[in-house]
UniProtKB/TrEMBL annotation, chains A, B:
InterPro entries associated with the record: HTH_LacI, Lambda_DNA-bd_dom_sf, Peripla_BP/Lac1_sug-bd_dom, Peripla_BP_I
Transmembrane regions: none
Cleavable signal peptide: none
PROSITE patterns registered for this protein in UniProt: HTH_LACI_2 (PS50932)
Pfam families assigned to the protein according to its UniProt record, in alphabetical order: LacI, Peripla_BP_1
Single annotated GO MF: DNA-binding transcription factor activity
Organism from which the protein derives: Alsobacter soli
Residue span(s) of domain HTH lacI-type: 11-66
Keywords: DNA-binding, Transcription, Transcription regulation
Keyword flag Transcription regulation: yes
Name of the featured protein: LacI family transcriptional regulator
């Protein structure tokens, strides 16, 4: 079956319609991702046949909104966040390989701007959306309702289980805890931004749960920090850790940028990193090896995201339920 | 006159054609940036009248290639270079304010990919191009020949004096020399990538010229480094500086990423930065204040680029000769 799917046969909409006992236009709608107008049983049957025959819709008829634009819009919260830039770069390359052109839109993590870009892109006939760290918003809810082709990245859809590419953030937090336990940490803390996204919450909770489960009597302190970005939030949260004597012996920073913020706060207080306090980040920023050799980090394989995002997008556009793709993170130790 | 230009009057193509004594279609072509089919004298006369009356072409007729797409393509060499990300972020915001949508394309600094994107974007009816650190390529030469609306950023056009937004790179190098002289440097070096762009060459030459002019008998050593990016090139060039005793007492790094590369090479040799060797970068990367507190840098105002790029693009699209816009750089000292 898998081999058949990989080598699509010369099957038409009409063949699938005949097999399913439904109209050609019903198959067309389902193949193009519009799942609302047919019954769940019909959708399920048609999707199964599409998968079985490896049918892929005629590109010219592919877009719901007229013609083939070959444009895909990526909406991301902050282009100048290195993690976002890494996801954008790998997705751009993968889309180009697949014959698409990526339009990149910076939502600044704001629902209003996300809505503005969703509207603008829709009116420009994009064939699909990649939403990195999406926030809940009116237009997004409408797009999900229309079954527009969307792949969510980093943060899951706020409107239920749709296509998602990311890592197991809870597990990443747990792995960070295992590392700090192996380093001998006994009085750890976790810092995070005041506005807690689902991604960050999972990392922090996974860390705390694992650390406390493996270390009887230990209690992980939590500190949140304000700021327009993770650098500021890390600095602000670390500034709340107290005087030099009160500092924890290890800190989970749920992003490397937060660890950079913590580093500055530590320097200002005479807390030596990593001698007095061992931080662990999550991201695996490429700059760590160059100018932050004090930082171990759970590395997220952002450069692998692009190819998986494009796979999911292709699946979603043919009406398949692609579900979640969780990529492997791995611990990258600081140079010893 | 300036006030008139800022408050456009209700002037038509026909008014300008009558004043200039040419046909309406000639004015239309010139207003839309197609300057090849009229004589230089006519172009000059019509452009002067357009500027004087503040005429701006009807948006619907604006694109040479049919219809109004409101799409602008930015081609940049590397999205994961923080300087590129900063330029992209500020340009995206300025274009959005002006009612445009930016398509971002990563050329990876390769002529073939630059050509592929120029073709692809042209076929998608973009209304203008922003070329960041462009390289010479066949399609670019053709686009310049057609007088397509293009603004060059960071690196000037390889095909003569067109619209450009950047800094005075020679002066930035000279200012870096003044700083190191003030720090007491006597045996300086300059590092740079093996492939020397015009931007980097100007910075390095401006540095050497100023240092040697102000310090009788001094000779600035030059070291080039290989690598796919400035981190690697900085590391590789610094590795050629010799043993700890041979290291210079100060180094010009023509980008902050090169300084990060140098920092790692110095650490591996026991050269203390900045005690044994004072580096100075050019960029003003926002991360310096957080995790590279040893680095002073000539800061390039990337966040101001966007608004100026959009101004130039508007000018170019109305056929104006906007020339060069040089923004002010400034020295940002490391925390003392």
């Amino acid at each position: 079956m898998n081999d058949r799917r990989r080598e699509p046969q010369n099957v038409s909409l009409a063949d699938i319609a005949a097999k399913a006992g439904v109209s050609v236009s019903t198959v067309s709608r389902i193949a193009n991702g519009a799942l609302r107008r047919a019954s769940p049983a019909t959708v399920e049957k048609v999707q199964r046949l599409i998968a079985e025959f490896g049918y892929s819709p005629n590109p010219v008829g592919r877009s719901l909104r007229g013609g083939e634009s070959r444009l895909i819009a990526m909406l991301a919260p902050n282009l100048d966040n290195p993690a976002m830039a890494a996801i954008a770069a790998s997705t751009e390359a993968a889309l180009r390989d697949a014959g698409y052109v990526m339009i990149l839109c910076d939502t600044h993590d704001e629902p209003d701007l996300q809505d503005e870009y969703l509207r603008a892109m829709r009116s420009r006939f994009v064939e699909g959306f990649v939403l990195v760290s999406a926030v809940a918003s009116r237009e997004l809810e409408a797009a999900v309702g229309r079954a527009d082709p969307i792949v969510f990245v980093n943060r899951r859809s706020p409107y239920g289980g749709l296509a998602f590419v990311g890592i197991d953030n809870r597990q990443a937090g747990a792995d960070a805890a295992d590392h700090l336990i192996a380093c001998g940490a006994r009085r750890p803390a976790a810092v995070h931004p005041e506005d807690l996204s689902l991604t960050i919450r999972d990392r922090v909770e996974g860390f705390i749960e694992r650390f406390e489960a493996r270390t009887p009597g230990a209690r992980v302190r939590r500190f949140s920090g304000a700021g327009k970005n993770h650098l500021d939030a890390g600095y602000s949260a670390a500034s709340a850790l107290g005087g030099k004597e009160d500092w924890p012996d290890a800190v989970l920073c749920p992003s490397d940028l937060m660890a950079y913020g913590l580093y500055k706060a530590a320097s200002e207080r005479g807390v030596r990193i990593p001698d007095d306090c061992i931080p662990i980040g999550i991201d695996g920023n490429a700059l760590n090896a160059w100018i932050a050799p004090w930082l171990s980090s759970v590395s997220v394989p952002y450069s692998d995201f692009g190819a998986r995002i494009v796979d999911c997008l292709k699946g979603v556009k043919t009406g398949l339920d692609v579900g979640e793709v969780l990529l492997e993170h791995r611990l990258v130790l600081k140079p010893s």
